[in-house]
Each structure stands twice: as structure tokens, then as C-alpha cells.
Specification:
The structure is a homodimer. Chain A is α+β, with helices and mostly antiparallel strands and about 475 residues long. The first copy, chain A, has eleven helices and 28 strands. In chain A, the strands form seven sheets. Chain A has a six-stranded antiparallel beta sheet, with no helix packed on it. In chain A, strands 6-9-7-8-10 form a five-stranded mixed β-barrel. A four-stranded mixed beta sheet of chain A has the order 12-14-16-17, with no helix packed on it. In chain A, β16 and β17 form a beta hairpin. Chain A starts with 7 loop residues before the first strand and ends in a 9-residue tail after the last strand.
């Protein structure tokens, strides 16, 4: 069979939030939806580069409840509603996520080939990826658990490595996998590079569904048993119960490092895991002093830096090997050698319950987005954008009043029993305890400035009476 | 005569804007009004520490037109309306400013003692200053041009030095001045320190008015002639004409370095010229890793840094000898050894006409202040604070409409011929081309959120029909 004709089911793992990309990533705005490399999010780019080899109907995204809505929006905005979203009740590492996703194949396709992709990696050479997918699919169909190995270009200590074993063909296009090595020290990474035959573990895998289940039954029997139970009884309660019992182990560790039938396919495709801010130095053009500058940056004499200004002016003088990331509510300044430690910083922000670790001043919503622009005792000011044809829920606030000034577009506003059209430069007042709804019935974006007043202004003072987006009644 | 009984007239030079303190200082918010060291501005602290030795009625501030209103507010808010403000038509360095200020003595006090102070220095030991003023006044009265010399504590290369000559008394409390040395190289500065008898030039001078004029007549005859002309004809046109003719030279260079009768009084008073961000490392407490942190800073392992967060969160990891200054619209990150170069950066910002070099998002006004909190095509949002008892001008805008939502306090609002009281949580609409006025008739601060809409939203779309603050009709 021609390998390009083998149907492939794709599973995208999108459970983490990429703490190392704070302050651009937040727990409610994870790295996979960040638009770091152009106008598409990492997730959208991940789907895009698989099309049409893997069509939306054969794709699934595995994520958690707190990100599901956001991921739905990301897919919906590209008209990829055929992509299925699987919600894990809690994070149980990649073995569980891959297992859950395998159920996606269902009975009718349990021996089909399935490919697993991280949601937040960068791949420059799409043709290289697609070619490797065909090759990988052929080996997967032949019964191998296939991993993509990236030929290393530097002695990177932040990645895992796979050593190649004996060749599987005569062209050197696939090997049996040898040892898996966790992030090595620099000296060892240098040895790997000079010795040859070692690859970075890309986190991209292919296998037949039945081969996967067979491997689970042998190396992770607990997981296997629970997956069979879930296949028999696919409801939310079972899923939650199953997840409580699942072992938390990575797919590499739990399966690949133990199995006999593992293949590694070397793939050159301009891959980067975009693991820390340090990655930008690889991915973006550099100036004559080896700086990457993005946004409104004014530099004098810095060298080897990564300077990222999201909207405000960032001025730098005489820095070396420094990362500066400026967002509307938080600024990070970090030595490049310590980019990994952003993770610890975010842990500390979380511990101190700082809102800057949770969300941006701009919050995406199914109907558009809002930006908190000002606040003080007794008031908050937001800019609200409602996309064409969208509406907010019919809602009531117990404590706050709202003043809306339409600054562009036209709104359809419900206040109590009155419905009226409010044009640009007009305003309306919504008293507390009054049902109201904001709607954009036009084909142009609607933008309003909302001034909230009252003694209690938190987001949870909301009761949703009707909603297009099936959100909970409160918050 | 008891030196403490010698009347002293004080002149504060407040013409510059302290570019090296950008982004905290701006051309319309100069360093002397910055609240860097507590709740008082540098200028207010400068006046405060002279009281009551030099009362407001014997004090003058020399400044330029663009800063005059701001300086008036600074003095007025402390009830120091007795302080006279002299406005130079254009900057002509310190010799001209001192000369202009000397006219302040007038005919009746032309032989009185006058002291000159920079507006933006820090002096920790007020008692030390006042004691030195008495001593200096005595030598000034005796006919000397007196300078205060600071015994150096380190080989500073950023200051000018004065070498002491023969002692003037037997207690070593005053010397004839020897050579003046401009900012030396490090090796020389080290020699000065080990050799002894060298002082930092503090920029504080004392002299009798007639002694000063005599020195001008000898060393700067052009300046002397123009000052006499101005004394005869004290009007604005003459002042402007005179200033066009004045030489631009420093008082040190033009007079002190040449005159015979110069004395230096050594003064230990915890002096710091607060010349660059580097000064904060001297003036503020340091943590166990020798960092100065001010504001909402979260640091991991940085050393020897100055980290200043005005309102947003600043997170830092592993920095060394780095200055971070974060303001609402601009962030500076600079190596400490290059703090002087902030000046060049600001020159470049000015050349590129970036608003961040001119003003803050919060702009002080005689009636209070406003903060630009959001803007986009066709709209601007401001938070406006009107101080108790104050009112804005009665004004008209040709192009923009305004929506005002009162978020705290009570406003008296004039729209056309209607005057009404607008309470918290109420709003009003001001159509274009309609005379209107905002006023706070209460004893509590008034705070409103203003949403401007229209095709043209610049500050110069204003016509002032009546104003409490004698401002121009437009802009």
C-alpha cells in the first residue's frame, strides 16, 4: 500500500500551560493559544500543518476542563469544528492522555494508525513533516511504535535523546530505537553530538491502535484495564473515576523505554519545542549585535538579548544575554542562562495568588474579548469587543451598575423588557438587579467602553439567565 | 554679627528636566517634581529643608516657561505662594540664571547675601546644611564667593572637584578655593581621594549681590551689561531681547574658576546629586544580595541591581548590576555602568517625537490630574480627578463628544445653559460644540471616567471660554 494513502488519525496533546512562557502565557491563557509566531496560535499552526493529510474529522485535541472553551474557540475560529475535544478530568501525564485519545479510534478503527503531536511546538518545514508522517505511518502499520527523532544541531541539555539501534531499512530512514536518555549534562550532550546516531525526542509518535493497547496491556496493565472499562462505559462519571485510578507516567517512560518494537524515524523539519524564551533566539531574525527584538524596542548597545515589547515602549541600554518580556500588566527581566527558572517564579506567583499568573488584562470570551483598562475603589473600566453576530449572555448583577458607551459599531441592547439599538457615540445605563444583554447584530465589530460602579465588582457577581455558550449560571 | 542672624535670600535653579531619570522624569514632568524619595518632590524637599532659615518670601525659583505652571502648583500645594518664580525665556546655563536671580534682591537689598541651590539634589543631614549656611553667609558677607565642597567618599568620576587652597580660619572650616576640576578619569579621582584636600562641587553657592555683580563686571562683562539693562527696564520684551544676547556659560566656568575671592566651605551633610538611577543604590536600603527594590518586584537571585516598579508587577531572575525602571507606558532596562547613557536614549526618543519622552500617562493640571487609560480609533478614555473646590475651564470642543461617568464624589456640571449636580454612579453627555465645565464644589475629591468619541481627539481641540488658571485659550 502506498504510505501516503494510509489513513492517519491525529491526537494533539494540549494539557499544559507553558509556565516558562510567562508573562505571555497565563494559566487561563496557555502557551498553545499564544500568538508568538505570527497571527496563528501554536495550536492552530499545529493543526494547520497537518491539513489535509489529517483532516479535522480525524483529529482530536486532549485538554483539561479549564482550557476546553479556549481551545474550542481556537478551532471554531478556523472552522475546524470537526476536531474532537477530549477533556481529561485531571492531568495524568502523557501515557493517560494518549490512552484516552486512543479510544477516539473506536471499535471500527481500532487497528488504524494514530499520530500524537504536542500542541505547542514549532515546525518550520511542513513538507518534511508530511513526508515523515507517511514514512512513520508505514512503520506503524507494520506494528512498530514509531517516534520522530530530530538530528541534533547543538549539545542541547534541555531535551531528551534517543539513541538509534539497528537500521530497519537500507536507506537509513528508520532504525530500531536504542536507549532513551533524559536531559543530559553538557559533557554528555557534546558526546552524543560528536558520536552521532542520537536524536532529540520530538514527542511525536505513531502507532496502530491495537499495537498501542497491546503495549499498554504489557507495560502499563493498570492503565490498560481502566481504558477497557472506559471503552465499555463512556460517561462522565466513569471517566472521573477512571482518572482517579490512573498512574501518572509519561508515554516515553511507561511504554517506549520498555517496549521492543520501537522505531525511530530521523526527521529534519526545522523543529523547535519552544520550551523557554530562549527559543526565540533560534526562531527570530537577529540584528547585528545578535539581539532578537520584537515590538517597540529602543536599544542602545545591548548584545545577545531577547527583547519583547507587547505594546508599551521598552528601552534597553548595554544589556548582555538578557531576556526582557513586557506585557500590559507584568514585565519579566531574566538572564538567558536562567530561562528555565521562569517556571519557579510562576509557582511563586501562584502561591501568592497573584492575578498576573492567572490571566491577562485582555480575556478571550466565546463572543469576543474584554480588556480591563482601569480600576480603583468603587469602579472598573473595561473595553469590550463583541464579534459580528455574537451576543453575551442575558445576565443580572446584584451589586454593580454598568454604563456602556458604544465607541464603534452598533449594539443591540436589552435592558429589562426594552430592546434598543445603540449607535456609536451613544450610551446606556444598566442599574443593578436588572436583566440585560449586549449583542452585535451587525457584520462589523462592536466596541464599547464599560464603566462599572458599585461596592462589589468581582467577576462572580453575575447570574446568567440565557447563554449561547452553555456556560455555568455563575462566574 | 551672629552669622545665624544674617538674612539670606535663596535662589533655587530649576531649569533642567533630568533626562537621566527617564522614564520617571519627562520633559513635561521634570526630575525636580518627581516624588522619588517619599511623598515630597525634590523641589519641595529643597525648599522644606531651608525653612525657616530662609522663609518663602526670601526665596525664588528660576525656571522656564514650560515648567512654570508645574512649579507653581508644587509650591502652592505647600502654601508657599510667597516664593517668587522667575521664568527664563530660554535656557542660558547657570551664570545667566544666577544673574537673573540676583536682580531679585532689588535695589534695597543689593548687598544682601544670596544663596543658590540646585532644585533636584538630596541632602540627608538638614542640620549640617543649616549650620554650613550660617558659616557660608559669614564668609559671603565678608566679600567671598562661597562654594560648598563635599568631602568625597569614593573616587566618583561623575562630579566636578574643587581643590582647597590656604585656610581662611584656624579651624579648617573654610579655605580659599584652588583649582576647579571637571569630571576626572577614575585614576585621577583616586588620587584626589588619597591625596585629600579635594571636594565635590555641590553646586551650592553664597555671595553678596554686589560682590556677584562686581565679579560679573570683571569676568562676564556682556552678562553684566545686559543685567543692568534688565534692572532698568524690567519687562517681558526686554527680558526676551536680553536673553537672546546672553552668553551660555556655567557659573563655575564663567566666574568661580577665574575669580580670586572664592572660598570653599567643606560640608558633610549626606549630599547626593541624584544624577542618575545609579544614585538609588546609595539612597535606598539594600537587600542581602545588594539589590535596591522599590514597588511590586518579585526577584529570584539577582545581585547588585536597582529594581523599580511604579505600579505593575516586575519579575526578575538572575540579573547582575542591572537597573529596571517600570512606568505605566515605558520600561527602562539598563546596565548600571551605563546609567549616564539614558540621556542619549532620551535624545533619540525626542528626535523620533515619541510621546513617552514628553509626558506620563498621568498629567498634572492646576485643578487635579488626568490619566489616559485607553485609546483606539475614534475614542479615548481618561480618568479625571478634580481636587476639592477646583474647576476646569469653561470649554468647547469642535470635534469630540464626551461621556462623563462620576465614579466617586459629586460633580457640578455645566452643559450649555444648564447647571446640575451629578452624583456618583450618574453620567452625563456633552455633545460637540457645546460649552461645558466640570467642577468639584465639595470637600472630597471628585473622580470621573471620561469617554471621548469623535474623529479628532487631540488635546488641542479645546477652546477655553473662562479659566481660573490664566491659561491660553487653546491647548
Amino acid at each position: 500500500m502506498d504510505a501516503s494513502a494510509i489513513p492517519i488519525y491525529g491526537v494533539i496533546l494540549a494539557g499544559g500551560w507553558g509556565t516558562r512562557f510567562w508573562p505571555l502565557s497565563r494559566s487561563q491563557y496557555p502557551k498553545q493559544v499564544v500568538r508568538l509566531l505570527g497571527s496563528e496560535s501554536m495550536l492552530q499552526a499545529t493543526v494547520e500543518r497537518l491539513l489535509p493529510r489529517i483532516p479535522p474529522e480525524r483529529l482530536a485535541v486532549v485538554t483539561n476542563a479549564s482550557q476546553a472553551e479556549l481551545i474550542h474557540q481556537e478551532l471554531h475560529s478556523k472552522n475546524w469544528d470537526g476536531v474532537r475535544i477530549w477533556i481529561e478530568p485531571e492531568g495524568r501525564n502523557t501515557a493517560a492522555a494518549v490512552g484516552l485519545a486512543a479510544l477516539f479510534l473506536g471499535k471500527e478503527a481500532e487497528d488504524a494508525v494514530m499520530a500524537v503531536f504536542p500542541a505547542d511546538h514549532f515546525i518550520q518545514d511542513r513538507a518534511g513533516l508530511l513526508q515523515a508522517l507517511d514514512l512513520g505511518a508505514a512503520w506503524a502499520q507494520a506494528g512498530y511504535l514509531v517516534t520522530f527523532g530530530i538530528p541534533p544541531s547543538r549539545p542541547e541539555t534541555g531535551y531528551g535523546y534517543i539513541k538509534q539501534g539497528p537500521p530497519l531499512d537500507e536507506l537509513g530512514r528508520a532504525y530500531r530505537a536504542g536507549r532513551f536518555i533524559e536531559k543530559p549534562r553538557l559533557a554528555r550532550a557534546r558526546e552524543f553530538l560528536s558520536e552521532g546516531g542520537y536524536y532529540w525526542n520530538s514527542g511525536i509518535f505513531l502507532f496502530r491502535g491495537d499495537v498501542l493497547m497491546e503495549a499498554f496491556s504489557r507495560y502499563l496493565p493498570d492503565l490498560h484495564r481502566e481504558l477497557l472499562r472506559l471503552r465499555a462505559e463512556d460517561d462522565e462519571a466513569t471517566l472521573e473515576e477512571v482518572y482517579r485510578n490512573l498512574p501518572s507516567i509519561s508515554f516515553d517512560h511507561g511504554v517506549l523505554e520498555k517496549a521492543e518494537n520501537v522505531a525511530v524515524v530521523p526527521v529534519e523539519m526545522g523543529w523547535n519545542d519552544v520550551g523557554t524564551w530562549e527559543a526565540l533566539h533560534e526562531l527570530f531574525p537577529r540584528d547585528e549585535r545578535n539581539n532578537v527584538t520584537i515590538g517597540r524596542v529602543m536599544d542602545q548597545g545591548s548584545r545577545d538579548c531577547i527583547l519583547f515589547a507587547q505594546n508599551r515602549l521598552v528601552a534597553t541600554i548595554g544589556l548582555e544575554r538578557t531576556i526582557v518580556v513586557d506585557t500590559p500588566d507584568a514585565t519579566l527581566v531574566c538572564h538567558r542562562d536562567r530561562a528555565q527558572e521562569v517556571k519557579d517564579l510562576v509557582t511563586e506567583l501562584h502561591r501568592q495568588q497573584m492575578v498576573e499568573s492567572v490571566q491577562h488584562t485582555t480575556v478571550e470570551r466565546p463572543w469576543g474579548r474584554y480588556t480591563l483598562t482601569d480600576e480603583g475603589p468603587g469602579f472598573k473600566v473595561k473595553r469590550i469587543v463583541v464579534d459580528p453576530g455574537k451576543k453575551l449572555s442575558l445576565q443580572v448583577h446584584q451589586h454593580r451598575a454598568e454604563h456602556w458607551v458604544v465607541v464603534s459599531g452598533t449594539a443591540r441592547v436589552t435592558i429589562g423588557r426594552d430592546i434598543s439599538m445603540v449607535a456609536s457615540n451613544q450610551s446606556v445605563y444598566i442599574p443593578p438587579q436588572t436583566p440585560h444583554r449586549l449583542e452585535n447584530p451587525t457584520v462589523e465589530p462592536l466596541q464599547i467602553v464599560e464603566v462599572q460602579t458599585g461596592g462589589y465588582l468581582e467577576e462572580d457577581d453575575i447570574q446568567r439567565l440565557e447563554d449561547d455558550y452553555w456556560r455555568p449560571d455563575r462566574a
